[in-house]
Amino acid sequence: MSLATEIAPHLPYLRRYARALTGAQTAGDAYVRATLEAIVEAPDSFPKDVEARLGIYRTFHAIWNSANVDSGISANEGSEFEQVAHERLSGITPLSRQALLLTAMEGFSNEDTAYLIDSSEDEVDALVAEAIAEIDRQTKTSVLIIEDEPIIAMDIESIVLDVGHQVTGIATTRDEAVAAATEQQPGLILADIQLADDSSGIDAVKDILEKFSVPVIFITAFPERLLTGERPEPTFLITKPFQRSTVKAAIAQALFFRSSAAIPA
């Protein structure tokens, strides 16, 4: 099997990680492109003693730690991005965020995470705890949940409350979501893609973002469809079925950067 064939299935998830780490689709995808370029230029340097998924994330971290990657963000966008990042990063180290995302969002074990960030398993535990504590302290807000499956909606509500946020409401259709958001103006939206009346969570979020800016996390059973890197796509994405730790990590990162959603075309 060729190296390209081995790493291809992992690219959508590397994009998800890179976007969450940088807080933007453009910047995250730029680092993924740089990673692929590095592999193409020096395929013999790709780690051969680990599985392909670990290898590509390891290569990504080498790029992340050493390269000045052109993100493609314009000067105005860049200054705003850097201002938010500087404000948030002042209280938490990038390494802590990497450990949090690799374990909670990407599902790597502490052992694998330690390999990826050149750390020990005990240090990974400490870094994750540090990240969660500091991000939670910085980012208390109100949350609108757009989800048509009652059990899943209740589970998400429980997670949101558990990390100290408030829930403004639970909407099951596009119209309900827009009405609820307009009335309450939440600080964060968690939106399923497919809603009860065959309406779209994506369309609901489009309508809401026409009224005001708000960070959005999309929830889907088919993340690879929204992580192609070929069009405007969500920065923050949760895969169904999800782990509670994954939702907590995504919420923390979305609020960390105060990022509004990129809406799929």
From TrEMBL:
The modification 4-aspartylphosphate is found at D192. The keyword Signal does not apply. Keywords: Phosphoprotein. InterPro entries: Bact_response_regulator, PhyR_sigma2, PhyR_sigma4, Sig_resp-reg_PhyR, Sig_transdc_resp-reg_receiver. PROSITE patterns: RESPONSE_REGULATORY. Residues 142-255 form the Response regulatory domain. Transmembrane segments: none annotated. PANTHER family: RESPONSE REGULATORY DOMAIN-CONTAINING PROTEIN (PTHR44591:SF3), STRESS RESPONSE REGULATOR PROTEIN 1 (PTHR44591). This is Response regulator. It comes from Pacificimonas pallii.
